Amino acid sequence: MLHRRTVGDVMTEEVITLRPDTPFNEIAALLDANDIAAAPVVDDDGAPVGVVSSSDVLRHETGMPDAQGLDGSDERAWGKARARTAGALMSSPVFTARADWTIPRAARELHRRHVKQLPVVGDKGLLTGIVSRSDLLHTFIRSDAEIRGDVERVVLERILGLEEGTVAVEVREGTVTLRGHVPEPRLVPVVVGLCQGVDGVVAVDAHLAAARTD
């Protein structure tokens, strides 16, 4: 089977966390010292109950609901602007991911929720890691040599059982070009589909024909 990397493969396991009673000054210092954009807030059991982001810190610093200093009428936003602890400053409820999620599923969730990172939880709802947009992007930033290796060894040889040299593979800037022959015409779309499933592949240009049997 073609292995598709999951959230568990790319997430950060050593997570900087906050407690609901963590004071504001400590929050700002932790985010700055660890060069992170957000940190999950966890309860006594280690379950995430919210997230504090750098935007929340900026709102507090400006004393305004909007980080750019614009006025607002949202009482909750004003409360966060005056917050003294992580519990009052955090965004809640928290949206989470699971380690067995595929990369596309996590990307869709980040986009749907309009967030830049998701705490990752296990079966008991306890924090096991955190995954960010940059973690997901790194999945698709692979060298042409790595992609070619996966296409040749995993797709063509291991999955399809084609003899070495039957299909020539060239990869340039993530675009896979295939030239050669396959045993049957129906295998052409199968080869293309499998290659498109390799992490980092941008497009597949197939010049394949069925091998002659006479």
TrEMBL record:
Domain of life: Bacteria
Any Pfam family matching the protein: CBS
Family matches, as SUPFAM superfamilies: CBS-domain pair (SSF54631)
Residue span, BON domain: 143-212
InterPro entries named among the record's database cross-references: BON_dom, CBS_dom, CBS_dom_sf, Diverse_CBS-Domain, UCP036990_CBS_BON
Domain CBS, chain residue ranges per copy: 11-68, 90-146
The UniProt record lists the keyword Cell wall biogenesis/degradation: no
Record's protein name: Inosine-5'-monophosphate dehydrogenase
